Known about the structure:
Number of strands of chain C: 2
Oligomer: heterotetramer
Largest sheet of chain A: 6 strands, antiparallel
Shape of chain A: elongated
Radius of gyration of chain C: 19 Å
Strand order of the largest sheet of chain C: 1-2
Number of helices of chain A: 3
Number of strands of chain A: 8
Helix content of chain A: 40-55%
Helix content of chain C: 55-70%
Largest interface: C-D, 43 and 44 residues
Largest sheet of chain C: 2 strands, antiparallel
Structural class of chain C: mainly alpha
Number of domains of chain C: 1
Number of helices of chain C: 8
Strand content of chain A: 25-35%
Amino acid sequence: MKQSFKMIFSLCLIAVISAVILAKVYMITQPAIIANEKRATENAIYKVVSTATSYKESKSGQTDIFKCYDENNKFCGLAFVAEGVGYQDLIKVMVGVSTDFNKILAIEVIENSETPGLGNRIVTPWFENQFQNLSLQNKITVVKVAPSKDSEIQAITGATISSQAVVDIINNKIEELKEYK
Amino acid sequence: MNIILLSAIVMIALAGILGAILSFAYSKLKVEEDPHKEQLLNLLPGANCGACGAASCADFADKLIKGEADIAKCSLSLRDENKVAKIKDLLKN
Amino acid sequence: MQRTNILFSDFIKGLWQQNPTFRLLIGMCPTLAVTSQVQNGLAMGLATAFTLLASSIIISIFRNFIPKEVRIPSYIVIIATFVTIVSLFLKANFPEVSKALGPYVPLIIVNCLILGRQEAFASKNPVQRSIADALGMGIGFTLSLMVLASVREVLGMGTLLGHQVIFGNFRPWVIMLTPPGAFLTLGLLLGLINIIDKAVKARREKKQ
Amino acid sequence: MVKELILVFIATVLVNNFVLKYFLGICPFLGVSDNLSSAISMGFATTFVMTITAPVAWLINNYILVKFGLPFLQYVCFIIVIASLVQFVEMVIKKFFPLLHQSMGIYLPLITTNCAILFMALQLVLKDYSLIKSMVFGFGSGIGFTFAITIMASIREELKFQDVPESLKGPGITLIIAGILALIFVGLGGLIQVK
């Protein structure tokens, strides 16, 4: 009987010590972790709505929307995160749209694990800048050649699935938010 | 309740239950191991990493006794010359 | 004098003679996964070395108090505690490295290298020897990760630690950044090391 | 719903194969794959434990960690339960099914130091799958592991009769073959897009 008591006691002792230490470390590092995440989203917002200097967070449906205000505190745009599955795994895109919701200001791919050298070229400025001032009247479409209409973008050679994925993610999120507007 | 107390309680409960299960298992489900293999197991690293091709250290010990495997394949225990020597002479008798 | 050279031999063994990655072939999961960049390889190596060192010290101190039956669960809880501390530390101070290493930081817990060391060495030897051994293995592991990572980064992206290394019209071999590249590079590296090893042995015999 | 499960299963076995894409379980993959029979029983033992660990990990996460708001205990809780569970199951099998223990039970202790199991448990929490989906994901990753290790074992059995360069014998040539296998599996990428 003494043997099994010794086993349980030592396992519990180690578990308690580790729990207390981890709780302490968690409380110390938690503020820094939250600050990091907040700074990352903030950088993306200010990159996507270039004129913004401050923003207010609000909810529409389940997605949180960032209302952006420029230096003389005028409402200058909306930013939100759209996410979906790309060629390999999750893609997250921060999208900035104009106040009347009919023009994309800019986008930034904030997270992706597409194939290096091919799919992850969706992060290059060349691809992202194509979305600037793209009209949202009709759905955005991907073309292989030079875009003709104003809601078309050119796919990256060798990474059509990833390019199409980014466009679909944005379209679906815009559709979803349009109902809530 | 603050986090430290809460996590301590959760861990005590978990460790307690698992400790009880293991101690119950050790007392009720004890299967006699032949002492020869028991000594060998104490000398082997016991990390069950599978690098030697055997399923686990216990399986590797069986194979050593039956002579199907040689100690050089266990990369972890190569670290300790005197241990390897001890294993070798244990296998001889 | 005799005391220190045991410690020194423990330390040196981990670096080359029994290098965990190229000689003992353990701890391969993170080795292949995070070595597409030298920076990530270095971070993973240091994280593993810290966990190995810290848990070796604790385990070799308490090696007589932990009953044999619950040996593995208790060692694993100690190792998991240190890995969680490292993971929280990385998330707080180096967010991009933590994102780059991603799911492979918690895998240090089940890294065959660490549990193998605790079982084989730390739980049976005094603290000083465990520290020397842990340092040797940790640094050996980090060095081998960086060797593999530099090969893959230079060929895969033409850069080393972020700085452009190869100029002119060098088209980087993108395969080096993908899983096949990792397997092939490590396989060929093992072959290369065996060749070097045989050459060194041959020269030593000739000298005698 | 069933369509989704099948998609997750195929994606885990072929597209996101645990060994050839996420480099998991390499230690046993290199060690145990030199003969076919031990590779197959190793694969099924891993699948068996992964299918048990998936629901257990899901329950621990949802009913203990999320409910009490203790995300930092995730690694410690998962690993202590996996280690103790494996030790207990191995003793039960050794006691009551000695035959089964001979063929499959001996692989159980290997599971605690197998990266694939912990990675799978953490992934199904990260992607917050439902309980059934987690079990399918666990089972799929086990089958993926078995699939990869069986192919490798059959190749290595043939390899014994080929003349491999002296320096590459053993792990070197295995890694190169694994590289070529991974190349084939990259071709399967993009087959299915699943979260």
